[in-house]
Amino acid sequence: MKLHEFNRNIHELRAALVAKHGRFLAVRSTKDHEICLYCMENFFAEVWYRKSDSEIALVRGFTGVSILEPYLDSIELPQLAH
């Protein structure tokens, strides 16, 4: 699946695709959200969980490396090779 196809889907389907095809890489936290980073085949995806109710607030796919910056201390590159 390509990034534009992924992002064109509704929120719930994007979440299901990440659950089925994504490889978990890292998690980070903000005041209101736990944000999980996944590697999809050709792009990355973030799943934003609200801390208040553990519901998914946002699922987004991306290729830009600037979005990866908050994760750099917790991502081990050998994970991508498995």
Description of the structure:
The chain is an alpha+beta fold and 82 residues long. The chain has a single domain (3-81), classed as Viral Envelope Glycoprotein, domain 2 (2-Layer Sandwich). Helices cover 26% and strands 34% of the residues. It is built from three helices and four strands. It has helices at 3-8, 11-21, 78-81, and strands at residues 23-29, 33-39, 44-50, 56-62. Strands 1-2-3-4 form a four-stranded antiparallel sheet. The longest helix has 11 residues, at 11-21. It is globular and about 30 Å long. The mean pLDDT is 90.
- The CATH first-level class comes to Alpha Beta
* Percent range of helical residues: 25-40%
- Mean pLDDT over all positions: 90
Major sheet: arrangement of strands:
1-2-3-4
Q: Tally of extended strands?
A: 4
Class per helix and strand makeup:
alpha+beta
